Amino acid sequence: MTERFSRRRFLHATVASSGLALLAGCTAGGSQSGDESGGSGDGSESTTTADVESRDFDGWFDRTSNYEGVYDMTDKDAVTVAVGVSGNSGAYAFDPAAVRVAPGTTVTWEWTGSGGAHNVVERENDSFQSELTATEGHTFEYTFEDSGEYRYVCVPHETFGMVGAVVVE
Ligand SMILES: [Cu+2]
């Protein structure tokens, strides 16, 4: 369970501007990425404050253009994944492609209406399978009670890389 991983933290603007944070940044040394304290505004006002953890899913996301790591949503009561965002040579992506949630969390997939008909299918254990639809605003929910790593696909676009994962810990 304890795999090697590295973490990238998106700092709140309030945290980044405090003297404490600056001090910590100085004493922590230069091995970490130093662009967090920069004034580019790139990450300081990010729309998400989730930690993004790089994690190897044994090649599961090799074809997935928008996979950038596991978004830590363990502190969220409700987690939504968009179905049919831009990616994988079309609107063939889940966003975020991978999330980490706490046991008992309900994940809602919400269709954007782009990219044609999609579905959300977990095949390894048959845990969940949504309708196949292109309807904008369509939602599908699944509550993850058990810890584990759940991989799912959109069947029509799996070969394009439209796959996702939910890590429950
Ligand atoms: Cu699809």
UniProtKB/TrEMBL annotation:
Keywords: Copper, Electron transport, Membrane, Metal-binding, Periplasm, Transport. Coiled coil: none annotated. The keyword tRNA processing does not apply. InterPro entries: Amicyanin/Pseudoazurin (IPR002386), BlueCu_1 (IPR000923), BlueCu_1_BS (IPR028871), Cupredoxin (IPR008972), Halocyanin (IPR017533), TAT_signal (IPR006311). GO terms for molecular function: copper ion binding; electron transfer activity. Residues 83-169 form the Blue (type 1) copper domain. Its cofactor is Cu cation. GO terms for cellular component: membrane; periplasmic space. Residues 28-55 are annotated as: Disordered. The keyword Cell membrane does not apply. PROSITE patterns: COPPER_BLUE, PROKAR_LIPOPROTEIN, TAT. Residues 28-42 have a biased composition (Gly residues). It is found in: Membrane; Periplasm. Cu cation binds at residues 118, 154, 157, 162. Binds 1 copper ion per subunit. Signal peptide: none annotated. This is Halocyanin-like protein. It comes from Haloferax mucosum ATCC BAA-1512.
